[in-house]
Recover the amino acids of this structure.
């Protein structure tokens, strides 16, 4: 063989033999090599297990998907290129053979509202928002709308309301609808929606699961009745997560329960401190005994794990005062996201809920003096000292 041929083929396509690496390798290959056409035919036809093309499946993605399936108690999972890709895949698969109608929680992540109002509604899907913590209101909305899909967040973004997933699942199931739960804020350490009757759980793994602010990704975990449809749609639509991001996410997940426990403990400390600060008009925290959903939280969440987000309103502050306050922060990072090892603060009006009209934001209860704090793993005293100096 000439050097041009050697350069392309030598050393490649070697079997790993008996070596089993202790962590999953990053499988970058887009396609796979087989001993014979007959074997490739069987794998393409899904008669034999194996990989043929990375839009369909990939060993790095399969490892992450198995991990998420175990953590969430699902039948199968799909790793997606972002949390929004995961939300979109779950909602559209839920409606694949059901009415094209969604009943959604009235407080959701901004882009999820955008998906419903700017993408699905113009495409002919009917969308209705309802307070899912008000079960009679949800029942009435479901009876009227006859939805194919009910969409909620375990802990809503950014006002931290908590619905009764088991009862919501009953209402959805009785009406023949599939329940999709965005479990990003809670994580499987705090809630496992599939155990409570949901059909799909979704995550932005960008947040707590990967946890280090260096990967964008999502995952859908489906029950037995919906996994095949999810996977088949994905083979066509191709929303999949790349192998390097799968590796980073799996690496992050190994320490996620330890990080999350610490982050939850930090949130308890900081929420208590904020609640008594004279400049804080109102603090929102799921561990607050006066939280409007405290009874649900006590019933559904494990003891002392309430999530690691604290939202708060600063007294008499408008956009200018909020900007000045956030500019004074020295340890807390001003950034759009949550769930990282570092504590970060976001201004929903300007970022996560920017695309929503001011009127709709007001209806959601998101005021212009509200900020959202995502607790990291630092020492709580240092976070409190930073907030104290920035509040002045
Ligand atoms: C609750 C929730 N769901 C979904 C998403 C979307 O995730 P991603 O940014 O990975 O697309 C976010 C992002 O902030 C979120 O907070």
């Amino acid at each position: 063989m000439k050097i041009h041929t050697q350069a392309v083929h030598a050393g490649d396509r070697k079997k790993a033999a008996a070596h089993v690496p202790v962590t999953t390798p990053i499988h970058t290959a887009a396609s796979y090599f087989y001993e014979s056409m007959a074997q490739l035919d069987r794998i393409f036809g899904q008669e034999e297990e194996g990989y043929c093309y990375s839009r369909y499946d990939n060993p790095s993605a399969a490892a992450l998907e198995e991990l998420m399936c175990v953590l969430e108690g699902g039948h199968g999972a799909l790793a997606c290129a972002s949390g929004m890709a995961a939300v979109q895949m779950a909602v559209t698969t839920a409606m694949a053979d059901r009415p094209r109608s969604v009943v959604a929680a009235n407080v959701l992540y901004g882009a999820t509202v955008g998906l419903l109002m700017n993408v699905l509604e113009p495409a002919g899907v009917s969308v209705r928002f309802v307070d899912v913590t008000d079960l009679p209101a949800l029942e009435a909305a479901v009876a009227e709308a006859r939805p194919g899909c009910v969409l909620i967040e375990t802990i809503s973004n950014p006002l931290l309301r908590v619905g009764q997933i088991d009862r919501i699942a009953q209402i959805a199931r009785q009406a023949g609808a599939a329940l999709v739960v965005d479990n990003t804020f809670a994580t499987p350490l705090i809630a496992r929606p599939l155990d409570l009757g949901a059909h799909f759980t979704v995550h932005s793994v960008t947040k707590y699961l990967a946890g280090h602010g260096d990967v964008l990704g999502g995952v859908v975990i489906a029950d037995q009745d919906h996994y095949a449809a999810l996977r088949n749609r994905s083979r066509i639509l191709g929303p999949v997560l790349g192998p390097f991001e799968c590796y980073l996410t799996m690496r992050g997940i190994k320490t996620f329960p330890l990080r999350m426990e610490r982050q939850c403990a930090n949130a308890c400390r900081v929420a208590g401190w904020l609640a008594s600060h004279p400049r804080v008009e109102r603090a929102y925290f799921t561990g607050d005994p006066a939280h409007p959903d405290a009874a649900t939280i006590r019933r559904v969440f494990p003891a002392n794990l309430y999530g690691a987000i604290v939202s708060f309103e600063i007294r008499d502050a408008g956009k200018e005062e909020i900007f000045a306050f956030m500019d004074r922060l020295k340890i807390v990072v001003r950034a759009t996201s949550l769930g990282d090892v570092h504590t970060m603060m976001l201004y929903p009006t300007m970022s996560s809920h920017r695309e929503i009209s001011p009127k709709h934001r007001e209806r959601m209860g998101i005021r212009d003096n509200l900020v959202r704090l995502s607790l990291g793993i630092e020492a709580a005293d240092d976070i409190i000292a930073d907030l104290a100096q920035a509040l002045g």
Observations:
- The mean pLDDT is 96.
